[in-house]
Write a structure and sequence with these properties.
The chain has 156 residues and is mainly alpha-helical. The protein is built from five helices and six strands.
């Protein structure tokens, strides 16, 4: 598994989670957020950013949510985000799809090669792809509201 932060101002490095690691609220909060992602996000954007994540169990852990409310300038909490919403997450609906398309063009033989190819593909991913994902975000949010939280991609 891997994690990443993206914005129109830039992006973090890919953060890989070693196989076998259990990603619970404490690991996500103390290792991924505190030690890796948030410091880079702040370096990229200062203290002006909106923090959005999906509703994976580690993301919605009580201590994690309280930490993000305290430590991020604008956090989109669980009460404002649909529970199953990959079609609203810019990384899910655009960035990973583009990465997968590029990775599938070559045969990968083992996990080490996969990590190398993911890193190379990430470094070569144009910022315009991320920007395009964010340009779609408001339209997707509006469509989700119109669909009352139901499926809406057919309306885009």
């Amino acid at each position: 598994m891997m994690s990443v932060g993206v914005s129109k101002l830039g992006r973090t490095e890919l953060v890989f989670v070693e196989p076998g690691v259990i990603i619970n609220g404490a690991y996500y909060r103390d290792i991924l957020l505190k030690k890796q992602l948030l410091s880079t996000i702040r370096w990229i954007s200062g203290d002006i950013f909106i923090f959005q994540q999906d509703n994976a169990p580690a993301h919605r852990a009580r201590d994690t949510v309280e930490f993000l409310k305290r430590e991020t300038p604008a956090f989109i909490g669980l009460d404002l985000w649909p529970p199953n919403s990959p079609d609203l997450n810019p990384v899910d609906y655009k960035v990973w799809a583009t990465m997968e398309q590029r990775l599938y063009q070559r045969k990968i033989h083992d996990i080490d090669e996969l990590r190398e190819q993911l890193t190379a593909t990430w470094h070569n991913l144009e910022q315009s792809i991320i920007d395009s994902a964010f340009d779609q975000w408001r339209k997707r949010l509006t469509a989700c509201v119109k669909a009352k939280g139901g499926h809406f991609e057919h309306q885009l």
